[in-house]
Design brief:
By secondary structure, the chain is an all-beta fold. The protein is built from no helices and 28 strands. Helix content is 0%, strand content 50%.
Length: 282
């Protein structure tokens, strides 16, 4: 395999069409699209300071690299991409990509990142800021994902999240087939207009969350400071502790230790389709 080491590479398309190359300890600067139409690259300890570093590429492995803020729209139309121990400061990374593996990777601004992508693995990934993560993407697994940014997973399909922490308003809107396990979520209007949304062993805080959902399942979950929940949702929920307020669920069963305010308006829903079970105190 060819090696390029400790070089500063500038100018547009600096290594256009590069194949079967090991790139290490390099800097890409002052030039768009340095690695366009490349394949079979291993990149380590390298800095990207300019726009569009990897487009239309295939079989890319990256470790201990940094994409600075101006390396925006960094990885588009690229398949079979892996990143390990990497920092991505640039927004709009990953668009219409497939088979993406990110591990021990940090995004400092993930605004509009991972859009229209498929087959994504996120392991020990931190998103410190960034709205609309993973919009319209599918086949996603995430373990130990820390996310700060609103509107996450809008329109996403086939998503499994475990051991994660989300601070995100309007997460999982318009989504389908989502399972979240052993995670914490804080954010208003969680899950609206989604289908087949499941939470297991989760702690959730949400103003007017979990509404307008077709087939919402909650197992052994805790709702803290969660009000006006379940409006127009079909729901099977087993909640530890109390729920502050429930408003007009469409159908299903809600089990909790206590519900402070239960609102079932017969001119808006059929209360006969809703079963509410309050556990007996021991």
């Amino acid at each position: 395999m060819k090696e390029i080491k400790r070089e500063k590479l500038t100018g547009e398309r600096a290594l256009f069409g590069e194949n079967e190359t090991y790139i290490t300890e390099c800097v890409f600067d002052d030039g768009e699209s340095p690695l366009k139409h490349c394949k079979d690259l291993t990149i380590s300890k390298t800095l990207f300071r300019w726009k569009y570093p990897l487009w239309y590429s295939n079989n890319i492995s990256m470790s201990e690299c940094t994409l600075f803020e101006n390396a925006r729209a960094g990885i588009w139309y690229t398949d079979n991409f892996k990143a390990l121990n990497t920092v991505i400061e640039a927004p709009k990374s990953f668009r219409r990509c497939s088979h993406i593996e990110l591990e021990n990777t940090t995004f400092t601004n993930a605004h509009e990142t991972l859009w229209n992508c498929r087959d994504i693995s996120l392991k020990n990934v931190s998103v410190l800021h960034g709205d609309y993560l993973a919009m319209n993407s599918e086949n996603i697994t995430a373990n130990n994902l820390t996310l700060v940014g609103n509107y996450a997973f809008d329109g996403a399909k086939n998503v499994t999240v475990e051991n994660s922490r989300f601070i995100t308003k309007d997460a999982f809107w318009n989504s389908d087939n989502i399972t979240v396990t052993n995670s914490f979520i804080s954010g208003e209007y969680l899950g609206w207009n989604s289908r087949n949304l499941t939470f297991i062993d989760c702690v959730i805080e949400s103003l007017q969350g979990l509404c307008y959902i077709d087939n919402l399942v909650m197992k052994n979950c805790t709702l803290i400071n969660t009000t006006l929940a379940f409006e127009y949702s079909s729901v099977e929920a087993d909640i530890k502790g109390k729920i502050d307020s429930v408003l007009n669920p469409k159908s299903g069963t809600i089990t909790a230790d206590k519900i402070d305010s239960l609102i079932l308006e017969k001119d808006r829903i059929d209360p006969g389709k809703v079963s509410v079970i309050i556990r007996q105190s021991k």
